[in-house]
Design goal:
Elements (H helix, E strand, L loop, with lengths): L1 H15 L4 H10 L2 H8 L7 E6 L2 H17 L4 E6 L2 H7 L6 E4 L5 H11 L3 E5 L5 H10 L2 E7 L13 H8 L3 E4 L2 H9 L5 E3 L4 H11 L4 H7 L3 E8 L1 H14 L5 E7 L4 H11 L4 E3 H5 L9 E3 L6 H5 L4 E4 L11 H4 L5 E3 L7 H9 L2 E3 L3 H13 L1 H18 L2 H13 L4
Parallel strand pairs: 1-2, 1-4, 2-3, 4-5, 5-6, 6-7, 8-9, 8-12, 9-11, 10-11, 12-13, 13-14
Helix pairs in contact: 4-5, 4-10, 4-20, 6-7, 7-8
Length: 416
């Protein structure tokens, strides 16, 4: 039945590919994948670790771990696989033994993968539990590890019909979870060798902050103004910002930076039309000569500048939680500021933790959004207090990378 569902998923990709760019990239990236792996995979020399990530977010979670491994164990081989184009397309050039799309989860594909890649250690990041890849990894004899896991009551792997998934996880050598609740759930379901490591995204955002440099145009744009950054925004957040401006005006010392999740030309044009009467320009337009000082709303129309934008923020709105789920709020928290987001954040424990810590604000509707954003932009005491609390929060949560790194280092040591 599961294999039939995978076949149906493949069929859906084929049908969607002509009109859906993501589906098209997923098919193109996996086209002739056996030849691509054989051609591009470096020759194995020492022990090899395979990391599998769903997308860019999971990769960024383990990036500090990968960088530390590369620094301390340059002879260890690393292979990275992605399920989604949002990971592969942006990190396909990461220096390692190979970066690939994960072939779809058919049993024969998984057998081929282990036979050719030959991972001594297999690390599945967060939720990426593909049945045949787990089963074949256990058969092949890879040391099986799950990292950065979050377990909840409603997850499918704990349903009676998903007993195969749970049996595989019960045979894993080590499962690193992010918090105590996940550890308790894992142990209640009979999962062994569970350790609480925390969330390595905290390590990642601290590392990124230390690397971010000032941006000349954004520096000019900010000037002496208060800036609110909408990070990874969707139309829901953009509409709320529009309504907020319509209701409260646009004071001389207030500006917005919108960094949309979708940077397609159509969506960028929609944002500009939405805010055209308020002095809205894209970053590209500022680079081409538009007046950054007079611009009130800046739309970042390219990938890779969100962390750069956050360094200029006095408050942040994190996209996604008015829809399917919250984007990475830690990228803003590390810079120190009040942070607003929607109510659909149950799968992201850092959201509730930020509320408890006093710098995160859940907005169930526009009224709450207006209240919290007015407080954040209008009250310097709230901003200062939130800045201290959010930075302290990130610092206290750091350290997950070292726990997982220490475990993997022991596995990389030659036998006595």
């Amino acid at each position: 039945m599961y294999s039939i569902l995978v076949w149906l998923y493949l069929l859906a990709l084929i049908i969607a590919a002509p009109v859906n760019g993501k589906a098209r990239k997923m098919l193109q990236g996996r086209w002739l994948w056996r030849k691509k792996i054989k051609k591009n995979l470096k020759r194995k020399q020492g022990k090899r670790i395979w990391f599998h990530c769903a997308s860019l977010g999971e990769f960024e979670m383990i990036r500090p771990l990968l960088d530390e491994l590369k620094l301390k164990h340059p002879d260890a081989g690393v292979v990275i696989s992605f399920f989604s184009p949002s990971g592969y397309e942006y990190r396909k050039d990461y220096p390692c033994d190979g970066v690939f799309y994960l072939p779809l989860d058919f049993e024969r594909n998984a057998r081929f993968w282990y036979r050719v890649v030959q991972p001594d250690i297999a690390v599945f990041v967060k939720y990426e539990f593909w049945l045949h890849y787990m089963q074949q990894g256990l058969k092949y004899g890879s040391h099986m590890v799950a990292a950065g896991c979050l377990f909840r009551e409603e997850q499918f792997i704990f349903e009676p019909w998903a007993a195969g998934w749970k049996r595989c996880l019960q045979d894993f050598n080590r499962i690193f979870v992010q918090n105590e609740a996940s550890a308790q759930k894992a142990k209640a379901e009979g999962l062994r060798n569970v350790s609480i490591s925390g969330d390595s995204r905290f390590d990642r955002v601290l590392a990124v902050k230390s690397e971010v440099k000032p941006h000349d145009i954004l520096t000019t744009f900010k000037g002496e103004s208060l800036v609110c950054v909408a990070g990874s925004s969707w139309p829901a957040e953009e509409k709320l910002i529009q309504q907020f401006i319509e209701n409260n005006g646009m004071p001389v010392n207030r500006k917005f930076i919108i960094v949309p999740h979708d940077i397609g030309a159509k969506h960028i044009q929609e944002i500009q039309q939405r805010f055209q009467e308020y002095g809205c320009h894209t970053l590209t337009e500022l680079e081409q000569g538009a007046d950054a000082i007079k611009t009130k709303i800046l739309v970042v129309d390219r990938i890779g500048l969100l962390n750069t934008a956050y360094q200029y923020a006095d408050a942040a709105i994190i996209g996604g939680a008015f829809g399917k789920g919250l984007h990475n709020m830690l990228e803003a928290a590390v810079w120190g500021m009040p942070i607003l987001f929607g109510s659909r954040h149950q799968k992201f424990p850092e959201a509730q933790e930020s509320i408890d810590a006093g710098f995160g604000f859940e907005c169930k509707d526009y009224d709450a959004f207006e209240k919290y954003l007015k407080n954040a932009l209008g009250n310097p005491e709230i901003r200062s207090e939130a800045a201290l609390k959010s930075q302290r929060f990130v610092q206290q949560k750091a350290g997950a990378t070292q726990q997982v790194l220490h475990y993997l280092e022991n596995l990389l040591q030659p036998p006595a």
